[in-house]
Amino acid sequence: MNKQSFLEKLNNVLFPHYSCPFCGRETKDGVVCKSCNHNKINANFCVKCGEHILDNEKICYICKDLERVFDSNYSCYEYNEETSGAIMALKYNDKKYLAKDFAKILFERFKTLDLHIDIVTSVPMSVEAQKKREYNHAAEIAKEFCKLADLKYEDLLAKIKSTPRQAELGRDERIKNLVGSFAIINKQIKKNKNILIIDDVFTTGSTMTACATELKKAKPNKVYCLTVTKTKNPEM
User: Fold this and answer.
1) Which of 7, 79, 98, 117 gives a 20 to 30 Å CA spacing to 88?
2) CATH 3.40.50 in the chain, residues?
3) Separation CA 95–CA 227 (nearest Å)
4) Residue 138, Cα to own-chain centre: how many angstroms?
5) Is 188 buried (19+), middle (13-18) or exposed (0-12) by CB count in 10 A?
6) What's domain 43-231's architecture?
7) SS3 sequence of 91-160
8) 187: DSSP letter
9) Cα(137)–Cα(130) distance, rounded to whole angstroms?
10) Greatest CA separation for the chain
C-alpha cells in the first residue's frame, strides 16, 4: 500500500463520508439524505400492512376487509421513482453493497418498534433465480440487519417452485402465483417463537402472506414483516 492510499483510507476512517443509497448525494448525519427523507413513512401508518394513512385510524380500509396472515408489516420508505432505483440496483445490477445501507435503514425503524424477536429470516428465492443472481438480496439485507440488531438469522423457508416475477402481475394474480411456492425448513425450532421476515418491497402483501402462511404451520407466537419500502396503494 502506497502512502497516498494509506492516507486516503485513514481520512475515510477519521472523517467518513456517506452516500444516500437512493440518490447518491453525500450525507453526513444519516444513511438517507434530507432530500430523499420526505419519502419516509413516519406517523399515521396502518398497524397491519404499514400503509401510510392520513387520518388517525390504526388500520387502513383494505386491512379492515382483508384477513392478514402475518401479524404486522413495518415499512420504512415509500417505493416510488426516487427510491426504486436503488432497490433495482441491488436486485439486478449487482450492487450488493447496498444491502448494508438498507440494513441500517431497517435497524433505525426497528429501534422505534416494541418488538421481541427470536429469529430473523428473509423471503427466499428459487434455486434457479438465486443461481442466476448469485445471491439473495433479501437475505443479504437481513444478515446485515442481524449484525446491527444482534439477532439470530436463519433461512426458515425455501422456494420450491419457480414463478413469474410478482412485479409483472396484478393483485389477484400475485396471490395465485405464490400458492404452494414456499416450504418451511425444520418446523420444530420455530414453535412459540417470534419471527421477523425481511424483504425489500411490500406491495400487496401476497409474498409475505405466502411466507407467513407456511411459517404458521410451525405454530410460532408471532410473525412480523419488515421491509425497506412499500408501494403506495393507488386507492389510498
Assistant:
1) 117
2) 43-231
3) 18
4) 7
5) exposed
6) 3-Layer(aba) Sandwich (3.40)
7) HHCCCCCHHHHHHHHHHHHHCCCCCCCCEEEECCCEHHHHHHHCCCHHHHHHHHHHHHHCCCECCCEEEC
8) G
9) 9
10) 65
Distance of CA 179 to the CA centre of its chain: 21
> Mind listing the pLDDT tens digit for each residue in 42-92?
878 898 999 888 777 788 888 988 889 999 999 999 999 999 999 999 999
Quote the cell numbers at residue 184: 418451511
State the chain's mean pLDDT as an integer: 86
CA distance 228 to 102: 6
Rg (CA), the chain: 18
C-alpha cell at 195: 419471527
Check residue 52 and report its DSSP letter: B
| Straight-line distance from the first to the last Cα atom of the chain, in angstroms, rounded to the nearest whole number | 56
Q: d(Cα 53, Cα 71) in Å, to the nearest integer? A: 18
Q: Report the alpha-carbon distance of residue 196 to residue 4 in Å, rounded.
A: 44
Contact yes or no for 191/163 (Cβ under 8 A): no
Q: Is the pTM of this model over 0.85?
A: yes
Phi and psi at 89, nearest 5°, equal -65, -40
pLDDT in tens, 169-182: 555 665 566 777 89
Taking the CB of residue 177, how many other CB atoms lie within 10 A of it? Answer: 19
* Residue 235 scores a pLDDT above 90: no
